[in-house]
Write a sequence for this structure.
């Protein structure tokens, strides 16, 4: 284990793996205020996780800007039937 990782463990900061899970949203909603503070501390000292977060932010921004493809007319016509079938369940 690298010295920085060992220090993070000793002071109770999340590991880089835990940070990756948190940053990708898998655990983000479940974080307590204390966990968020520890994650912020981790980002302060870990350049790798800061770069990873920046890449995620850029990816999210790029995806949001992608044009939404038009819905084919056939699919559009079938939507009301699909919702009715779903309500029947
Ligand atoms: Zn890290």
């Amino acid at each position: 284990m690298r010295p920085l990782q060992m220090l993070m463990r000793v002071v109770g900061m999340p590991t880089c793996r835990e940070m990756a899970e948190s940053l990708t949203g898998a655990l983000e909603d479940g974080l307590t205020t204390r966990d968020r503070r520890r994650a912020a501390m981790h980002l302060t000292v870990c350049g790798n996780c800061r770069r990873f977060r920046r890449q995620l932010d850029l990816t999210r921004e790029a995806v949001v800007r992608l044009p939404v493809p038009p819905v084919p007319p056939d699919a559009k016509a079938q939507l009301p039937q699909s919702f009715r079938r779903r309500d029947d369940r």
Notes: Residues 16, 19, 42, 46, 48-49 surround zinc ion (CB under 6 Å).
